[in-house]
Amino acid sequence: RALGGRPAGSGPSATAGAPGSAAALPAVEHRLGGVVPDPARLTAYQHLVGEPATDVLPAGFVHVLAFPVAIALIVRPDFPMPPLGIVHLANRVEQRSPLRVGEALDVRAWAQDLQPHRKGAQVELVAEVRRAGAPADAPPAWRGVSTYLAPGVRVPGPAPEEPPRPEFVPPVPTGRWAFDAAAGRRYAAVSGDANPIHLHPLTARALGFPRAIAHGMLTAARALADVGARRGEAYAWDVEFASPVLLPSSPAVRVAAAGDGAWTVTAWDAARGRPHLTAEVRTLG
């Protein structure tokens, strides 16, 4: 297994030098070959997020396998954003063919599309997963694009205007999620994402949160699990995060058919009427 550097596409370059300004993205691609999913880790993940116990890897677990390769980009000394304090805005995944326990996988990741945001700078981390030995130009079995915001980091150029969002009107719930105070620590154990904002109220408060918050990908994985087998073996899974889920809490949830093999999942704070996330899962032909 090895991480290698290779030229890759990057977003618009930015001028370095001023405090808080972002330099250009490193033009490298990280690769890790021969990744073999751990059955015990998969079982723990399935229990935590509500996926059935099968040998097929849910798209969220594939994200877990690819996450260390993608996050290794952010902790590079030449990456223009600090690793602490970044905010997960959205995730787009295509699971094009099922992956199973026992298959060796190859992962590659790169950063792209560095651009201004009204609150700082945003970037996309892209990861692709193929079965080991598959041609590099073959379509990946899994592809994920995670969009992150670095508050306070400046990138030259005007920030894109954000279209006004309609007022959130809570729909009729079809269920609730239950997250206890230790949910962040359990997800960190299966995912490797040990960001301190998820682990304990004290470390979360030190970073500006009133108490620990759930990982965005934990809530996204719960949304995917709620759609369940209706998604089929090949599916797209898009998530936008609106506000963090404080721990402990019990967000209200609605799962609804959207037609043409698509399902929507909405989660919100029922007491405050604030949305946490919206997700769409749709079957790929």
Task: Note down, in words, how this protein is organized.
The chain is α+β, with helices and mostly antiparallel strands and 285 residues long. It has a single domain, classed as Roll (Thiol Ester Dehydrase, Chain A), CATH 3.10.129. Helix content is 19%, strand content 30%. The protein has 5 helices and 10 strands. The protein has a 10-stranded antiparallel beta sheet with strand order 1-3-4-5-2-7-10-9-8-6, with helices on one face. α1 packs antiparallel against α3. The longest helix has 16 residues. It is globular, with a radius of gyration of 19 Å. The two termini are 34 Å apart. The N terminus is likely disordered. This is MaoC-like domain-containing protein. GO terms for molecular function: fatty acid synthase activity. It comes from Cellulomonas hominis. InterPro entries: Fatty_acid_synthase (IPR003965), HotDog_dom_sf (IPR029069), MaoC-like_dom (IPR002539). Belongs to the enoyl-CoA hydratase/isomerase family.
Give the structure's gist in a few sentences.
Helices cover 19% and strands 30% of the residues. By secondary structure, it is α+β, with helices and mostly antiparallel strands. It has one domain (29-155, 169-283): Thiol Ester Dehydrase, Chain A, CATH 3.10.129.10.
